[in-house]
Amino acid sequence: MEVVMQTIYPTSLTPNQYAEQEYHKQVKAPINCPNCQRAHTLGALAYYERYITTATVLVLLIWVRRFLCRHCRISVSCLPEFAQPYRPVNTPTVEEGFNGQVTAQVARRSELIGCYWDRFETHLPLLLREVGNAFGPLPLQPTAKDFWHQLIEACGDLGSATRQLIDQFHTCLFGTYRCHQRRQPLQAA
Ligand SMILES: [Zn+2]
């Protein structure tokens, strides 16, 4: 059985730029395996495809780079920073929506973004248990809004916040998923 671990790959590209430049071919392996933490163990594996919203009405199919760890045998997928785990609306648009901005992209995806906010509110108690005061001291009973503003202030934007939540706390805004958890090595190298 294949075990996949997901990481967020830092990039300032938009979904369209990423696709036009075939940037998935340039994505470099993380130095350390996110699972076993060993250095220089990740070798090229393949790609998988997923959908992402763009500035237009179009939904774009992009390729996501994957690597295989020679030590722990886990596959590592490098989701570009403009994408959220398991959510098609691109990260900057989710951020604008959560900030209450009504841009053209937000208006076009408002229903989905509303669902995302509901998921975030539902996940909040668990999320707060994981992160504690890592992003600053919180009020006694923080609301989703309280935590959202604090997270964005501490991290700068949602892309960077998602990367930190996944790498350091093995969770994200919308849930705690298997693909963000560390596993035992599948076999000794
Ligand atoms: Zn590994």
Strand content: 15-25%
Strand order of the largest sheet: 1-4-3-2
Largest sheet data: 4 strands, mixed
Ligand catalogue: zinc ion
Q: How many separate helices?
A: 6
**Whole-number total of structural domains:** 1
Radius of gyration, whole Å: 17 Å
Structural class comes to alpha+beta
Work out the helicity level. Answer: 25-40%
Listing every helix as H and every strand as E from the N terminus to the C terminus, the arrangement reads: EHEEEHHHHH
Low-confidence stretches: none
The first-to-last residue Cα distance is 17 Å
Question: What value does the average pLDDT take?
Answer: 94
Number of strands: 4
Q: What best-fitting shape do the alpha-carbon axes yield?
A: globular
Q: How are the SSEs placed, and which strands pair?
A:
Elements (H helix, E strand, L loop, with lengths): L3 E6 L5 H6 L21 E12 L5 E11 L5 E6 L10 H8 L5 H5 L1 H22 L12 H12 L2 H12 L20
Parallel strand pairs: 1-4
Antiparallel strand pairs: 2-3, 3-4
Helix pairs in contact: 5-6
Bound molecules: zinc ion.
The site of zinc ion (ZN) has 9 residues, from loops.
